[in-house]
Specification:
Pfam families: DUF488-N3a. InterPro entries: DUF488-N3a. This is DUF488 domain-containing protein. The chain is of the alpha/beta class. The protein has one domain. It has 7 helices and 4 strands; from the N terminus they run βαβαβααααβα. Strands 1-4-2-3 form a 4-stranded parallel beta sheet. α2 links the parallel β2 and β3. It starts with 5 loop residues before the first strand and ends with a helix. The relative contact order is 0.24.
Length: 141
Amino acid sequence: MACGTLTDTYVAAIQHGLVDLPADATRIGVVRQPTSWFHAAVDENLPELGPPEPLLESVRDAEEDMKMQGLCEEGAHNAAWDRVGFGDAYRDHLESDDSARAAVETLSERLAAGESLALVCYENTEKKRCHRTILREYLEQ
């Protein structure tokens, strides 16, 4: 059985031609609240695979705290992830939320059928940690 490829990137990389995605890859947005310009860069969006709002709020609050302590934006973002246990909380969301579980199952089936997928959100992971990296690893398992 053919297996599709799985990659990930961020929306600005697509918009500015900074990423070389497989030509046949379906660009799947994985954000809760996409903007119109985000929609224009992806083929579809699965908001149920974005982090839950309470988790995003806890990261934002912790990030503001860290910035007040003098950390740069990227440092504050990454430290906030650790403080709130983002990785474990997001994996728990993927396993416990019915709509997230269904979306993961659908993407897994699409990959197994040979479709190539590129997960897309807002963060440049060269500097900041991002849920789509966790999602990609989760799908690869």
